[in-house]
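Project standup — Tuesday

K.O.: blocked on the structure for the chain from last sprint. Re-posting the sequence here as requested.
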Amino acid sequence: MDNVAAVICEYNPFHSGHKYQIDKIKEDTAGSAVIAVMSGEVTQRGEFALTDKYVRAEAAVRSGVDAVFELPYPYCASCAEIFAKAGVFLSYALGANRLYFGTESGNTEYIEKIADALDSPEFNEKASLLVKDFGGSYLDAKEKALLKMGLDIPKTPNDILATEYVRAVKAGGYDMDYKTIKRIGSGYKDDGISEIMSASAIRKYFYENGDFLSVPTEAKAIYEKARKEGMILDPKEAENFLFRYILSLSAEKIEKSFDAGDGIGYFICSTAKKSKNAEEFFRSLTSKSYTYARLKRVVMYSLFGIEKIEPMPSYTVLLASDAKGREICKNAKIPIITRLADAKKLDPVSEKALKTSLCTDEMYMSLLNNPKPSSYAYKKAPFIL
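H.V.: unblocked you, prediction finished:
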């Protein structure tokens, strides 16, 4: 297929803002196929998703996306740079020649300017000197170095990821155009009720009131079905499990996890031992030295024994598709898994990676409102429209 547009996403859940983005992409590309490279059961902030990946993928395809492919664990639960590199790589390997992403500014040129600055020798020199001369974190040094170059460091998750998407496209030398679509509706930290709410506000409202607001009609039907069947994450059960698991680990063990080091393992372990319960543990998991998202990702890495991450994912899983999406699958440059038997066509490294990602699926089944045996994860199949 000649024209394929890609978005890299979590769809946690797929909501009206996402529907607006997909409609704008199709309008902008005169009806190109649109694929989504979507996080599996764990999100980029190191949290389990509201519903499983097949539910979210079906909601997206019923709402206009042509195919949804998995951004597997641990890439989906990594820092912005790794998340973006893996997502861009999979998008290109699946045949996308255009990448779209949402930002607060809607200014592609400014995002590109920041991306170019971050990869320039001038920036690296300034940032290194600032750390050497004044100490502090490299993140602080990055911000100061950019300010010296007349630029502001991105502050919102969307702008941060947009910058990393552009950097990934350029670093990979991919023949891929990219364009930002200005976000509309509530900001990502806004918990208010509106026509287009943030994903976090939708989740919060659901857990407090049991209803889904600001989601397209087609998607709401899927989520309502999941709710009735108990296929919604029990967040308290998930936090209780993670807290008790961390209590069973030594600081040294946590310290070996990917993206730990710098005393993170000792901080997490110490915080857990000082906490009476999971709620207190996660509330106390704050530090001037480490971001909350990084700490939660390390907790998750510890759970699944992630000590290193391969440079790029070497496979993907088809989660949902329509007829256009199935055509895209035929020309992919990477193995696409649709059933467990497909694992036989993977090389040993990829097969091991798939098994690690499948562990998150198995674990997820036990954390639902209506828990399932871990084997239930293997009964899941792509939704075909």
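K.O.: great, moving the ticket to review. The chain has 16 helices and eight strands. The first strand starts at residue 4 and ends at 9.
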